[in-house]
Structure formats: structure tokens, C-alpha cells
What we know:
By secondary structure, the chain is an alpha/beta fold. Helix content is about 40%, strand content about 20%. It has two domains: about 5-260 and about 460-480, 3-Layer(aba) Sandwich (Aldehyde Dehydrogenase, Chain A, domain 1), CATH 3.40.605; about 265-445, 3-Layer(aba) Sandwich (Aldehyde Dehydrogenase, Chain A, domain 2), CATH 3.40.309.
Amino acid sequence: MSDTSTRPEGLPKTIPHWIGGRPAPSLDGAVFEVSEPVGNTPYATASRGSAADVDAAVQAAKAAFPAWSALGDRARATALNRIADAVEARHERLSAFETFDTGLPVTQSRGQARRAAENFRYFADVLVALGGEAFRQGSSQISYTVRRPAGVAGLITPWNTPFMLESWKLAPALAAGCTLVLKPAEWTPLSASLWPEIFAEAGLPDGTVNIVHGIGEEAGQALVDHPEVPRISFTGSTATGRHIVRSSAEHLKTLSMELGGKSPAVVFADADLDAALDSVVFGVFSLNGERCTAGSRVLVERPVYEEFTARLAERASRVRVGPPQDPATEVGALVHPEHYARVQGYLELGRKEARLLAGGGRPEHLPEGNYLQPTVFADVPRDARIFQEEIFGPVVCAAPFDTEEEAVELANATPYGLAAYVWTSDLARGHRIAHAVESGMLWINSHNVRDLRTPFGGVKASGLGREGGAHSIDFYSETKIVHVALEPPHTPRFGEGGESK
Ligand code: NAD
């Protein structure tokens, strides 16, 4: 059972939708139970949105659109900065909610409020700094772009670092002048219950942001299917992403798809192996391994393979697994029993497919809750399912390589292409690998350190489109080109020479 002493203060008993600036139960009264991942005990009910609730939210967003989209850039930027202030003011409560609901260690959830606030501040800056494009054709014509907010945006988000990922979509959508409907993940709706008071405190006009809770196949699908929502920004699994792409064909929606990953960390023998080890351990076990950019395949050059994997296993076995609220905890509880069972399934599979070096099951000192030992598999063949499929837990696969070509080939040997990491002291080689690996993002001699100005996204089964900086603003906008003649254009004079009929 969960220890009630770990319950954060102010835990709501019900989590309603938020539509038109007011809390709203589902029109048909439906709810679903929400549990925490330590005792797997229900602690609240959330409203279970249907197509009718989604439509009410879309209508509220449509009503708010003319005023919000007409607001000057500076005024919108000021509103975004006020939202950032309101997020920061709830830093402690947000961290406590996130840790309670998702199982994320508290030391890691503490960074989420700061990152969420930073997303709003950053997009406020982008908004006021962003210019358009202009093109000149000699002395005859000038052309310039005009950006218009696209309308009502639909935002669909996953359960890993839910609040931060919601902010990553909310901030650019609002900056671009869209109003919107957010559908948070059903396993972790708690931190999203803070948005209404944050937006109210920031003075955001009613209906600018609307939140509909519910099940993906119901509320999420209704948002994807709604004809008056021209943009869908989705972060989640590749399987759901594929389904959404198919569904949204009917209304030809513009989509941004941030999907799954199975990112390689390539370690050459000439690398700073101590730094590489720290980075590999952090990259795959932080956020409970429930991280889209986790370096979950470690490819190591043969001469240092045995030593590196032995050290990796030794470090993994010393990672502190424990209650998410304990500041000493490095890996907490996985989000949900269904996900826990899924990851456990991969551990059983891994024992058949590869050599288990560390972990492999539940830690002995934690007989209850969704806890797993950080796990290392070595000698993982490239066609093994644990090498190919996203596990999304504290599990890492290691494999050796002999040449640079083989390293690239192995790095590219999965359907995914989100992130990649390369460790080497040969800078030219670092760049060669960076260019050859099929991924949307690659770090040389580093783990995932974000720069909000840079494009974020994946290739292959990891997604469509890029978010970040001006890319995000473009996504939530329609860009029009206006051509202006500076002198009379040459116009072939049709109808001049013929005879009239
Ligand atoms: P998921 O696909 O199960 O759910 C994501 C969201 O989609 C949830 O809100 C869910 O309710 C909704 N949904 C489900 N079915 C839907 C449907 N038919 N129509 C509309 N919405 C629907 O993903 P998850 O398990 O919550 O999240 C984990 C996945 O997210 C992992 O694969 C991870 O790699 C990925 N992820 C990717 C990134 C990235 O930036 N690339 C970031 C974080 C997580």
C-alpha cells in the first residue's frame, strides 16, 4: 500500500476538464480512476472526455481565437512571461505532484518546473525577435512572408515528464497566436490540474487554453477527428502516431509527431571512458529510463568492450532504486502496472536473447510497487527484439563493434532515429559519425543537453517534423507569401492578335 505520508498537500479528489475558463465535468458525467505507481492505489477520479466534451472545448477555443490571435506580439509575450512566473511560483507543489503521480525521483522532478517555465520565457523571446522572410527579384518584384496563427491547435501528450512536455507544446502554440485544446495522458493527469490556476493567475483570456482529460482512443481520437482543429501536435508512441497520421488524412491536418526512440550511444576506445560511462549511465537510467532520447543501445569498440560493459554493470548495480519521494533515490517507480509488466516482459526476453550483466528484475528490498533494478544486457545481437524495440525503462543493451563502418551500421540498424550520442577524442571521426547516423539529433561527447533554439525531432519511425525555436512557430502558423510588382511585369497579351468569335 502507498504510504499516505507521501501524499502531497492539496491533492485533488477529482480532476475535471477545463473548458472556457471553468472547470467542467464530462457532459455525460463519465470519470476514470487515477492511481499512483508506488501502491498502485487510486487517489482521484478524472473526467473522462467524449467527443461532445472535445467539441465543447474546440468551440471555446474557437470563440477565444479572434481576440488572442489579434493581440500584438509584445502583449502575447508578456502573457507568456506571466505564465512562466506562475509556473515557477508552484515549483514545489508541481514537483511533489509529478513525483507522486509518475514515480519520477523527486530530485529529477524538481528540474521540471524550471524547464517548463523556461519554455514559456523562451517562446516569449522568440515571438518578439522573430522576423519574416523577404526576397527580391532584381528591380522587378519583392516578395515577403506573412505568418498567421493556424487556428485551434490540438495537443496530445504522453505520461513521461508530463507537465514539462505539455509546456513544450503550450508555449509555442500560444506564442504563435493559436488557441488550443490539450489532452494530457490518462495515466498522469495530476500535474495538468495545476494549469487552470496558472493560466488564471497569468490573466489568460477564458477559452484560450482548454483541457480535456480522458482515454486516448476516446478524447484523443475525437480531437484528431475534429474538423475544426487544423494542427495536431502529438508526442507519444510510434504505434499511436501511425494511427493518428492515418486518421487525420480525412481533414488533411498538419501534424507534428514526436515518437519513440532506441537511440545509440557509440563509444570509441579513444574516448574519455570515465566521462562516457557517467553519461551512458545517466542517459539511460535518469527519468526511470522512461525517456524518449535515452541512449538505450550502447555500442562499444571491441578493445574496450569488456572493460566498459563490466564497469557499466557495476555502476548499474549501485544505482539507488527507491521511493520516488526520497531525495537519495536515483531510479523511482515505473509509471503504471501495465507498463511495468511490459518492461518485465522485455527482461525475460532479454535473458534468452543476450547475456545479463546486471539487474534483471525487482530489487529485493522493494517487494511492492513498480520497481525494477537497472538492467544491463551485453552481447545483444542486432536482430534481438531487445535491440530493436523501445523498452522505455531502466534497461540498456550493449554490443561490440570493430570498425567505424560497423559502428554506423549498427547505430542505424533499428527502425528508429530520434537521438544518438558518440564518444571519441577524434573530432573528425565524431563529425563523420554525426553525419552518417540516421537520427534527428546527435550529441558528440555529451548526453542530452538541450538548446531550445535548435530543431527537436526524429527521422524514420521516430517522427515527422521538428519542434523548437522558429520551427515550432512555423508549425502553429500558416505562412503566406505576398508578391509585389515594383515595375510593370511583362505580361504576354493573350487575345490581342486573334479574331473574335
Ligand atoms: P501513447 O502513444 O500511448 O499515448 C500518448 C498520448 O496519446 C496519450 O495522451 C494518449 O491518451 C493519446 N492517445 C492514445 N491513443 C490515441 C488515439 N487513438 N488518438 C489520439 N490520441 C491517442 O504514448 P505513451 O505511452 O503515453 O508515451 C510513451 C511514448 O512516448 C514512448 O514511445 C516515447 O518514446 C514517446 N515519447 C516521445 C518523445 C519525443 O519527443 N520523441 C518524448 C516523450 C515520449
